[in-house]
Amino acid sequence: MKKNLPRLVYADAQGQIYDHPHLTMAGMSGPEAVLPETVELIPLPEGSRLFTIPDTPPIAWDQRTKRFSTVDKAPGLRGRPQAVSAFMAPGYARTLLPACDYRQKSVHLPLWSYTAVGWDEERDCFVVAASQVDTNQNWNPDNYDDRLLDPLVRQRLAELPNNRLLEQLARCAIDYHCFAAKNLFFRRWEAPLPTSPACNSACLGCISLQASECCPSNHDRISFVPTPEELVEVALPHLEQAPEPIVSFGQGCEGDPILQAPTIAEATRRLKRATSRGTINFNSNGSLPDRVQELCDAGMDSFRFSLNSVLEERYNAYYRPKGYRFSSVLQSLQIAKQAGRFTMINYLISPGASDAPEEVEALLRFVAETGVDMIQLRNLSIDPDYYNRAIGITRRGIGIYRLLQRLKQEFPRLQFGYYNRTKENFFPPGFENGWPIR
Questions:
Q1: Pairing relationship of beta strands 342-349 and 374-379 according to DSSP bridges
Q2: Beta-carbon neighbour count of residue 103 at 10 Å?
Q3: What is the mean pLDDT of the chain?
Q4: In whole angstroms, what separates CA 47 from the centre of its chain?
Q5: Which end of the chain has the lower number of beta carbons within 10 A, N or C?
Q6: DSSP 387
């Protein structure tokens, strides 16, 4: 074992965080406790948050006994310690889950992404098991000052008093603190165009609709289908005036926009006739290939299809598709690629699952078959133990960092990222030399 690995951190019932004098930080890959590798430990990124995992004791490495063990007692506490997790700032892919005894967990954890965290005494900071996969600073929380936002929202609502979509986005910006919705009112960067109150998936980790017996969803879905006129009325000024403008269908406060493809296609045609500026992007489950072709014909610039796995049984266990098969998603990706569109997968990663040996080999085949341009690595927000059991993860993976290395080695032109890009930056200078892993 290497010297000076980070210390275990734990919390009391009030949320006060402590570092342990001699126990070492551990992480989890799937259901197995592991020691973090030095290469995957980075200082807690600015904008990240720490929180506790209620009534769940941490697991640590004990150098004296050379084993992992559940920590039921800890210095400074009368009661049982609670595990601590990090919620990562955007742009970072976690490589390990928090190490804790999930068997003792008494609640279904809310829809957050959970990352292993420890205390590095030498660097005098918290460290997390993660890798930076995107350096775009537009989404830094410091860029989103609500004191500046409120008057802009009121102004835009006064300008378009009958636009239901704008009212929805105002709620998303003010009530749900959606950065993308805020961008619309700041008139910059990427802005959302939600369209669909319905979905043909029933994702375990859906952020806009959850069964009552599960954890609460993060926000409510849009309850109507905007008209092409409403969409253009909101999107056109953004495309014409914003710096680095993107408008995206398929953002968080909706079902899946592929069910509203005819409406979106008509709005896209009108936007393309009105301006050549900006990027129109479509985020979807990709379940209806003929609709993807319709959107390509209308002039959609880029497509991002969401996956938790490229193994059909694990995909089905999470997405629980209604009336489509995984092969439809593959076909949609191929259609968009053949039409010359920039193609991405929104890869919802969880350590131990995304880097399972069988998943890695299947992903390599998937990239080779589809020629996808970018993998966006997004930390799946779900109770980790619940997810592992739901899709059948029973052992550790090869490591998220090693997964990225394999992809980079096999496909040097494959891009990694976290955010959508403008069409001017689909293939940025230098990408042809291979995409860096940070």
A1: parallel
A2: 10
A3: 93
A4: 15
A5: N
A6: H
Distance CA 193, CA 402 (A): 36
Half-sphere exposure of 323 toward its Cβ, with a 13 Å CA cutoff? 5
User: Which pLDDT tens digit goes with each residue over 47-91?
Assistant: 899 999 998 999 999 999 999 999 999 998 989 999 999 999 999
Per-residue confidence at 210, pLDDT binned at 50, 70, 90? very low
> Torsion angle of alpha carbons 399, 404, 409, 414, nearest 10°?
160
Q: Which residues pair with 96 in a beta bridge?
A: none
DSSP letter string, 165-231: HHHHHHHHHHTS--HHHHHHHHT-SEEE----S--S---TT-SS---TTSPPPSSPPP-S---HHHH
Tokens standing for residue 79: 């009661």
**Residue that the structure tokens 């500026």 belong to:** 277
Residue 129, SS3 per DSSP: strand
Mapped onto helix, strand or coil, the DSSP state of residue 37 is: coil
pTM of this prediction?
A: 0.93
The two three-digit tokens of residue 311, written as one number:
């193994």
Interstrand relation of 415-417 and 49-53 (parallel, antiparallel or unpaired): unpaired
Distances from the Cα of 201 to the Cα of 73, 244, 308, 344, 356, angstroms: 43, 32, 13, 19, 24
Of 372, 394, 391, nearest to 383 by C-alpha is 391
pLDDT tens digits, residue range 382-412? 999 999 999 999 999 999 999 999 999 999 9
Please say if the pLDDT value at position 213 is more than 50: no
Which SS3 state, helix, strand or coil, does residue 106 take? coil
